[in-house]
Design a protein that fits this description.
Elements lengths: L2 E2 L32 E2 L8 E5 L2 E5 L13 E5 L2 E5 L7 E4 L7 E6 L10 E4 L2 E4 L2 E8 L7 E2 L5 E2 L1 E9 L8 E8 L15 E5 L5 E6 L14 E3 L8 E6 L43 E6 L5 E6 L9 H4 L10 E6 L7 E6 L5 E8 L4 E9 L10 E5 L4 E4 L13 E3 L8 E4 L2 E3 L5 E4 L5 E7 L8 E6 L2 E3 L2 E3 L2 E5 L5 E6 L6 E4 L3 H7 L4 E4 L5 E3 L4 E3 L3 E2 L2 E2 L3 E3 L8 E4 L2 E6 L3 E4 L23 E3 L8 E6 L2 E7 L14 H9 L19 E3 L5 E5 L8 E2 L19 E4 L2 E5 L11 E4 L3 E4 L4 E4 L4 E7 L8 E12 L9 E6 L11 H4 L8 E8 L4 E10 L1 H7 L4 E8 L5 E4 L12 E6 L104 E6 L5 E6 L9 E8 L2 E6 L5 E5 L8 E7 L10 E4 L4
Amino acid sequence: MLKKLTAFLTAAVMVTSVVSISVLTSYADTNSTIEKRVMEKLDRGTVAVKTNGGVYLSWRLLGTESLTNQAFDIYRDSEKIYTTGEHDATCYTDSKGTADNKYTVVPKGEAIDKTEAVDVWTTNTTYKGRSVAYKDIAFKVPDGGKTPTDEEYTYTANDMSVGDLDGDGEYEYIVKWDPSNSKDNSVKGYTGNVYLDAYELDGTLLWRIDLGVNIRAGAHYTQYMVYDFDGDGKSEVILKTAPGSKDGEGNYVSKAGKNITKGDDKKDYRNSSGLLMGKDGGPEYLTVFNGETGAAMQTVDFDPPRSILTSSEWGDSYANRSERYLAAVAYLDGVHPSVVMTRGYYTYVYAAAYTWDGTDLKEQWLSTNTPTEENGGTGCTVKYADGTSKNNTNKTLYAQGAHSVSVADVDNDGYDEIIFGSAVLDHDGTVLTYDGRGHGDAEHVSDFDNDGKQEIFMAHEAGKHNDKIIPYAVDIKRYNGDIMLQAAQGDIGRGIMDNVDDEYALSSGNLSLFWSVAADGIYNQAGEKVGNIPNTNGSNMENFAVYWDGDLGRELLDGNKLVKYSVTSGTERIYYNSKNSTLPGSINNGTKSNACLTADLFGDWREEIVLRYGDGVRIYFSTIPTDYRLTTLMHDSQYRCAIAWQNVGYNQSPHTSYYIGSAALAKDSGGNTLNYLAPNTSFTEVTYPDTSSITPRPTVKATTAPVTVTADADTYLVDSTTAHGSDEELKINQAQNVYTSSSPGLKDIKGLGLIRFDLSKYAGKKLVSATLNLYDKFSNTEKKNSVLHLDYCSKNDWDEATVTTNDITVRGEDTPLSSLGLQVSPAYNVDYKEISFDVTDVIKEKCTDNLITFTLWTGTGREQVIASKEYSGTDAQGPTLVLEFEGEEPTPTPTVVPTATPTLKPTPTVVPTATPILKPTPTPTVVPTATPTLKPTPTPTVVPTATPTLKPTATPTVVPTVNPTLKPTTIPTAIPTVIPTTTPNLANNKITAMINSNNKLDVTLDFENVDMNDVNVYVAFKNNGKLVGMKMPQASELKGIDLIDKEYTDIEVYAWDNKQKPYANIVRIVNNVQ
C-alpha cells in the first residue's frame, strides 16, 4: 500500500479553485513581457478523412493567429462550402463529401490559389462505433549484418522525431534504426551500427546517416535533436558521432571537422567486449547535419571526452556511467533555440550548450558537476566561451540525473531551464536548484494546477546521498526545491502526472492526478487516493498520455493500448472489438512500451500516435470531433522542445507550458464558459524565422565514382645513399629525424620508404576523400607488434633509383620530412594484409605541383614489408590512392588539387570583352595576378596557392543587417569572372566610391528613375594578392564597407540589373583615388 511519509515536507497542497477568467482576444493579449520565440512556420496541416458521416476535416490554428477572432473558409473542389465562426473548433464534417473530393481550408477571405488542396484519406477503420484514421509510411529497412564475433543482427524502426527539413511547412520524419543486438550500457557485447533516416510522408527516403561501429546501439547512446537552430526555416539534425560515422551523402563526418581530434575513420575502436573505453575508445564528435540533404555541415569535438575521468572516477570499469547521454533543445536566450548535450547522471555530470548560426557550431558554456564541497568536491563549475567562469560549491547535478530530461521556464524569467532529475540547470549553465533526492526514471513538468507556475513530478529510485537514505518515492515540487507533496512507494520505473479526468478536475479543484508503477492507486494533488491505478486486461497504464477524444482531459497510452480513464468508472478502451483490442502496430523499447512518437503532427490540437507497423510505421489520427479550439501544440515552445527530446533515454510524454482543462476555459463578461483556454500561464509568443535575405543552402553534390591512382614512383633507403627503386618490396624499418643545428636531417636509416603520386590528371577537381592503401606483411620472429608511421615529404623531385637523403633534406634547414601523426600497428602476419590511411587533409594542405610524396618508417627497429608498384605477385598490389571528387556544380568543398601546369590559353582574372558574359561563377577566381589587369596577361599565373582563397562554409550567412560593417562572409558572393567594361549611354546614372577617413569604402549610387530593388551592386577588390568579391545590400548609399582591414589597392564597383545589363559605368579606385 502506498503510504505517505511521516510528514509532508511542506503543508502546501495543490488545490486551485475555479474562477472566472477574462476573455482573451488573441495569444498576443497576454500580459507577458517575454520576447517572442522563433519557431517553425508551419502550413495549415489540413487532413481530410472519409468516414461514415461524410468527410471529416481538421486543421491547425497557428501560434501567430487569433484564438478568438479567426474564421476559416472551407472549399471542396475549389467551391466554398462553409465558413466557420470566429472561435469555432478547427474541425468540420462535410456530410456530402466523398473520397474523390479535394479540400482547401484558408483564413476567411483569403484566396486559395496559394494553398494546395488535400486529398481525402480512405485509410480508416471503425472500432466500437468510433472511426480511427491512419497513414502508413513504408521505410527502407537497412540490411542486417554480423558482429566481429559472428553474431547476426537485423533492424527495426525505433524512436522518431520530426522537423521541417526543406522549409515547405510540412514535417518530415526522422527515424532511428535499432539493431536487434542493441544493449543497455551495463551489458557487454558488440552491437550493429545505428542508422538515422529521413522520410517524407509519402515514403520518399531523403537520406541515411550511418553512425558507424564506434557509436554503440542502445537507449542511452544516440540522442538526436531535430530543430531549426539557425533560423533559416529548415531544421537541422545534431547528434553525437565518431570516426567512421558517415553523413547522408556517404562522406565521413570528420571531413566537416573544425579543429577536431584526429581519428582513423577505418578503425574499430571497440575492445574485445564491444565497449568504447577511455582514450582507447577513440575521438568523439558532435555533428550538425543539413536536414535537407543529410550532409555534415560541421563536426566539432564532443565536450568533454569520456577520458576526462578514469574508470574508477566514473564509478565502474565497463563504460556504463561514462556513456549515459541526454540531450535537449532549449531557448537559453529566451528567443533562439540552443542544443544542450550532457554526459553522465549517476555520478559526474557534464553539460554543454551550443548554438548553430549556419556557419559555426559554437559552444556557449560547459557545466562540470562534481560532489558538493561538503562531500569533497567543487560543486558546479561553468566555463564560458569568453574565458570567464562561475562556481557554486553548494549546488550540483552530480548523481541527480534521470533517464530523461525536460525543458521549461520554471522560474518565469523568460529563459528556459533544463530539469535534470533532482536538480535544475539554469540557462547560463549554473545549477538553479538542487534538492539531493538523486536519480530516478521518469519526470513530468507542466503547470499541473493552473497557478501560472511549473510543477515538477518525479519518480525516484532508492539510494544514498550525502549519507542520507533516499527511499523509493514520487514527489511534486517547485523549481526551487520546495516539496509540495511526497509519497513513499516501491521500486519505481515509470510514473505519470496529468489531467486525465477533466470532469473530476473541474468538480474537485484537484486539477491533475498522479500515480506510478509501484503505487496502490491513483492520487490527487492533495495526496488523497481517489481510485485504482488505470488498468486494462490486467496491465497497468502508467506510461504515456495523449490528447485524443476531443475533451480537455488526456487519454492514456501504454504500448498500443489507448484508454479513457474516469475516477468514478475506471478505464475504458476507446477502440475495442472482439478481434482487436489494441491499435494494430508494434511497440518499442521493451518494458518502456512506447510508441515511435506521439505528437501534434497535423490537423487540430489533438495528438497523433506513431506505431511501428510492418517495415515502416502507421500514424494514427483521431476523427472524433472536438468542440474546443486550441492553437497547435507545436507552437507552444515547451511542447515543441519536448517533441525534440522525446527520443532521449526513456521516452516520456510531452507537456505544454500551460494547463489544458475545463478549469482553464475562458468566460465571457456574463460568466458563460467559452470553448477556448485562458490559462494562468502565458502562451508562447511566436515569431517566424526571417528568411527573406537568406541565400539557399549550398547544394552538396553526391560524389562521383572513386578513382584509383597508382604510385608514380616508390623506393626505400637502407642508408643515406642506397635506393632500391626497382625492388618488388619496400623493406621499411627505422629512420630517425634529427633537428639539431649541428646535424639537421635524417640519420640511423635502416629502411625509409618513399612513395610519390602524380595528381595532375585531377587538377582543379574538388576533392571529397583520399585513402592511401598499402599491402603490408610483418613476420618478425619475436611476434611482437610494430608501429608503421606515415609522414610526408615536401620534396617531390627525386628519382626512385638514385635518390639519397641529400635530395630530400637541406643542410642548415629543418628536414622537409614532417610527421602527420598517422600510424598503424599491424600484428604479426606472414601474409600480405591491406592497410589504409585517410590522407584527405594531407593532399588538401600539402599537395604542391600536383605531386605528393609519402614517407614510411617504423619506430621499433622491426622490419615491415610493403608491396611496391613493381610487385608481380597476385596476393598484393602496389601503393594506390583512392580519390573521390564532387560533381561539376559548385559545392561547399573547395578545390583542393591546384593546377600547377599552365593552361594552353590565357585565363585572365578580369577580362573585358565586347560582349561580356555576365553569368557569375559561384566562387571567386582563386589565383589573381599581383595587380588587376584590364587585359589578359600573356601567360597565365603558373604557381597557384595550395589552398583556395576563401573556404566556403556549409551554409550561407543568415541575417544581414541593414547597414552592416560589410566584411565579406566566408561564403564568397557569386561575382562575375567577366566584368563588363563597355560604355553604353549611362550618363544619367553615376557611381561614386571613395575610401573614407576610417580606411573603409563608401559607395553612393545616383540613378535616375531606377528602382533600387532591381539593382545588384558588387564590389571586387584584391586582398593579399587574392581576388575577393561581395554583393552589397540593395540601397543607394552604402557606408563603411570593411574590406577585411587589410591593405588593398585596386577596387571596382559596378551595378547591373536582374538581366545582367549594366546600370552605370564601372568605377575603379586605384591607390585610394577614383
